[in-house]
């Protein structure tokens, strides 16, 4: 539990908000991961070969299976759901729309991930993904947690990767990797979350192949 707590946004309790038709709903309050960045570059990567959970109804499963089959979820074990990159030279963000994300395939995934790791100045793919504080090391630490934890199964959960898009030095990048979108999480009954674990391995292998062949 303590290991997982280190890789999710901080929890600040709950609050009650008015929803549709004036209904009151209780919501959890989580840390804003972007707050420490001036112009964050962010990528949302949904992890797992299967995004549906076993107790879902057949309509939901069918919908998820179709989405998984049409994206890199079914072949690589993960897919890009959203991305924005800050260009420090042009001083503006570029945001990937839904169609752009859907079109990323096994051949273009390296190009997409490399584009995320480039702000035109200090940020380079090598600086973002490699090194002691890079994505690859943080991903491996997360994978080590999932090699051991048998408390929870994560379905349709993402990892969010952020760095300072306006960085002019490597020291200012502050690369962060966190688990997000974990609403569909269930007790694991002392079993490994192989779906999520193999998805992490797929992402690790793709990043490694970008630099080491």
From TrEMBL:
Query: Any one Gene Ontology biological process term?
Result: inositol phosphate biosynthetic process
Reaction equation(s) it catalyzes: 1D-myo-inositol 1,4,5-trisphosphate + 2 ATP = 1D-myo-inositol 1,3,4,5,6-pentakisphosphate + 2 ADP + 2 H(+); 1D-myo-inositol 1,3,4,6-tetrakisphosphate + ATP = 1D-myo-inositol 1,3,4,5,6-pentakisphosphate + ADP + H(+)
Origin: domain of life: Eukaryota
The reply on keyword Isomerase is no
Q: Does the keyword Repressor apply?
A: no
Report keywords, A-Z: ATP-binding, Kinase, Nucleotide-binding, Transferase
Q: What is its EC number?
A: 2.7.1.140, 2.7.1.151
Report the GO molecular function annotations: ATP binding; inositol tetrakisphosphate kinase activity; inositol-1,4,5-trisphosphate 3-kinase activity
Q: InterPro entries given for it?
A: IPK, IPK_sf
**Which top EC class applies here?**
transferase
Q: Name one GO cellular component term.
A: nucleus
Per the record, the similarity remark reads: Belongs to the inositol phosphokinase (IPK) family.
Q: What does this protein do?
A: Inositol phosphate kinase with a broad substrate specificity.
What protein is this chain from? Inositol polyphosphate multikinase
The organism is Picocystis salinarum
């Amino acid at each position: 539990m303590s290991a997982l707590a280190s890789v999710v946004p901080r929890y600040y309790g709950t609050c009650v908000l008015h929803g549709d038709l004036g209904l009151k709903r209780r919501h959890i309050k989580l840390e804003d991961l972007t707050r420490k960045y001036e112009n964050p570059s962010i990528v949302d990567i949904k992890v797992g070969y299967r995004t549906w959970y076993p107790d879902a109804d057949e309509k939901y499963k069918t919908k998820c299976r179709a989405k998984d089959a049409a994206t890199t979820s079914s072949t690589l074990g993960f897919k890009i759901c959203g991305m924005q990159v800050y260009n420090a030279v042009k001083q503006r963000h570029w945001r990937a729309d839904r169609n752009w994300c859907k079109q990323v395939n096994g051949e273009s995934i390296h190009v997409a991930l490399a584009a995320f790791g480039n702000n035109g100045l200090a940020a380079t793919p090598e600086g973002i993904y490699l090194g002691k504080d890079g994505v690859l090391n943080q991903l491996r630490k997360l994978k080590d947690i999932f090699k051991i934890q048998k408390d929870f199964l994560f379905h349709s959960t993402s990892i969010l990767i952020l760095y300072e898009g306006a960085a002019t030095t490597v020291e200012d990048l502050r690369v962060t990797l966190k688990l997000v979108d974990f609403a569909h999480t269930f007790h694991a009954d002392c079993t490994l979350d192989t779906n999520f674990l193999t998805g992490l391995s797929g992402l690790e292998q793709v990043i490694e192949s970008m630099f080491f062949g």
